[in-house]
C-alpha cells in the first residue's frame, strides 16, 4: 500500500513538473516580429547578463522608463514599446525576473536603476508587471514620475500610493474580466485614470506567442500595442516635472 501511494505521489509530481515545463515552453515566448524592434533609428540595444534589456536613445530627454514584464513573459516581447519610447528620448530598461516572474526582480531593479543617469523614472507594467512596479515604488527610494498599468490585476492594496496612474484595460481580457477588474480598482487610488480599449485582450499588450486562459481579441495586436503606447506617452508627457519627493509616497 505504501509503495502504491509513493508511486502515485511520484507520478503526480512528475506530471506536475512536465506540465510546468510545457507551460514555460508555450506561454510568454516572443514572436518572430519582435526581433524587428531590437534595432532601429534613434536608439541602440544592450542585453544585460541577467537577460534584462536596455534601449538607449540617441538623444535623451532626461527621463527613464521601466517596462516590467508579466508573469512568464520574456522582456523581448515588449520590444515594440521599448523602441517606441526610446525614439522619444527615454532610456528604457526592461528587467528580467527570475523564472520569468517580475515580482521576484523588484529589489534587483531598484539597485540597477541607481546606475542610470536620468532625472526621473516612469513605469509601465503589464499584468503582474504592474503590481511589481507599484511594489517597487512603495519599497524603494525611486524618483518616480508616473505609472501606466496595462491589464493589471491588483490583489494587494496600493490605494494610499500618491503617484499619477493611468490604467488601460481591454474588454475581452480573459485573465482580468470585468468583475476582477472592478475588484482591482478597490486596491488603487481614487484618482487613477481608467481607459478601456474595446476588443483588446490580455496578451496583445505585448508580442508573445500564447496566453493560457485569455480570450480572442477583436482587434489586431499591433493596433492594441500602438494604442497603449500612444495613450501612455501622452499621459507621461504631463509629468515632465521635478521628480515626486519620496515623502509623497505614503507607506
Account of the protein in words:
The chain is of the alpha/beta class and 251 residues long. Helix content is 31%, strand content 18%. The protein has an 8-stranded mixed beta sheet, sandwiched between helices. It is built from 6 helices and 8 strands. The chain has helices spanning 2-26, 79-86, 106-113, 128-139, 178-185, 221-237, and strands at 43-47, 53-57, 63-68, 91-94, 120-126, 144-150, 165-170, 193-197.
Second CATH tier, the architecture of the largest domain:
3-Layer(aba) Sandwich
How would you sum up the global shape?
Answer: globular
CATH superfamily of the largest domain: Alpha/Beta hydrolase fold, catalytic domain
Task: Give the overall pLDDT as a whole number.
Answer: 89
How helix-rich are the residues, as a percent range? 25-40%
Task: Provide tags for this entry.
single chain; 251 residues; alpha/beta; Rossmann fold; 8-stranded mixed sheet; 6 helices; disordered C terminus
Describe, in short, the structure shown.
It is built from six helices and eight strands, in the order H-E-E-E-H-E-H-E-H-E-E-H-E-H. The chain has helices spanning 2-26, 79-86, 106-113, 128-139, 178-185, 221-237, and strands at residues 43-47, 53-57, 63-68, 91-94, 120-126, 144-150, 165-170, 193-197.
Break the fold down into its secondary structure elements and pairings.
Elements: H1 2-26, E1 43-47, E2 53-57, E3 63-68, H2 79-86, E4 91-94, H3 106-113, E5 120-126, H4 128-139, E6 144-150, E7 165-170, H5 178-185, E8 193-197, H6 221-237
Parallel strand pairs: 3-4, 3-5, 5-6, 6-7, 7-8
Antiparallel strand pairs: 1-2, 2-4
Helix pairs in contact: 2-6, 3-4
Amino acid at each position: 500500500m505504501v509503495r502504491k501511494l509513493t508511486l502515485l505521489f511520484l507520478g503526480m509530481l512528475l506530471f506536475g513538473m512536465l506540465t510546468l515545463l510545457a507551460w514555460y515552453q508555450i506561454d510568454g515566448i516572443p514572436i518572430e516580429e519582435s526581433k524587428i524592434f531590437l534595432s532601429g533609428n534613434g536608439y541602440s540595444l544592450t542585453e544585460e547578463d541577467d537577460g534584462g534589456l536596455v534601449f538607449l536613445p540617441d538623444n535623451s530627454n532626461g527621463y527613464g522608463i521601466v517596462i516590467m514584464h508579466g508573469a512568464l513573459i520574456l522582456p523581448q516581447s515588449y520590444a515594440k514599446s521599448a523602441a517606441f519610447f526610446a525614439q522619444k528620448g527615454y532610456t528604457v530598461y526592461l528587467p528580467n525576473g527570475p523564472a520569468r516572474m517580475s515580482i521576484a526582480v523588484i529589489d534587483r531593479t531598484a539597485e540597477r536603476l541607481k546606475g542610470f543617469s536620468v532625472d526621473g523614472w516612469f513605469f509601465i507594467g503589464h499584468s503582474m508587471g504592474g503590481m511589481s512596479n507599484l511594489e517597487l515604488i512603495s519599497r524603494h527610494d525611486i524618483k518616480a514620475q508616473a505609472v501606466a498599468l496595462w491589464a493589471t490585476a491588483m490583489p494587494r492594496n496600493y490605494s494610499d500610493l500618491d503617484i499619477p496612474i493611468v490604467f488601460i484595460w481591454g474588454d475581452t481580457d480573459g485573465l482580468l474580466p470585468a468583475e476582477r477588474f472592478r475588484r482591482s480598482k478597490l486596491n488603487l487610488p481614487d484618482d487613477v485614470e481608467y481607459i478601456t480599449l474595446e476588443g483588446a485582450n490580455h496578451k496583445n499588450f505585448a508580442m508573445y506567442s500564447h496566453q493560457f486562459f485569455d480570450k480572442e481579441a477583436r482587434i489586431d495586436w499591433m493596433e492594441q500595442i500602438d494604442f497603449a503606447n500612444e495613450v501612455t506617452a501622452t499621459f507621461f508627457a504631463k509629468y515632465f516635472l521635478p521628480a515626486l519627493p519620496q515623502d509623497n509616497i505614503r507607506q
